[in-house]
Amino acid sequence: MSNESINEIQKLIFVSFSEQTELSISDLERLWSLELQWMMPDEASLVIKKLIKSGWLVSENNLVSPVYLDKQSVPSLGWQPMLRIISSPPIFVSESVPSPIVKVEVKSEIVVNVVQSEKIFSSEKHPPDRSESNIPTLIRFIAKKSEIDNREVVRRAQRKRRSLGPVTLWMSLALVAREQGLDMVEVSSLIEPA
Prior knowledge:
It is a single chain. The protein is mostly helical. The chain contains nine helices and five strands. It is elongated.
């Protein structure tokens, strides 16, 4: 099993599951084929089946989740999986994964998931983001005012992050609020109270 194959699979799993620890098979196919445009829908379906068969993903009640999530597998900007590698994944063996592994823990509260995934990307090189602590309040505000579910607000914000690149979660939430026609003065006061 080559390190290149393992690294490619780990990056694919990290990008796919760093925000949610389980997805429906159709959501994962949609993410890879329509949102990220990495492959055709039938190719995405085939890759998912092969990742399940090789042990990298677990399938239960039409939901898939990774066996392990390597939080060190953050891909470089503009990374895209190599279809020839991910369509022939090696068999997952926990001892063969070279980098530190963290067992995936399913969180019941989506807000906890989002704030924790934000902290993964925090670095000592950058000053702390004071607005990070206001993210749960901002999510609830947008959901209440626009009458959509908290999960949907987070999903839309994360979709913006994937398409825009290196953007903070609170900024992508502000963009969702703007799309919903919310008062941006209220939104900005929630992001960073005076």
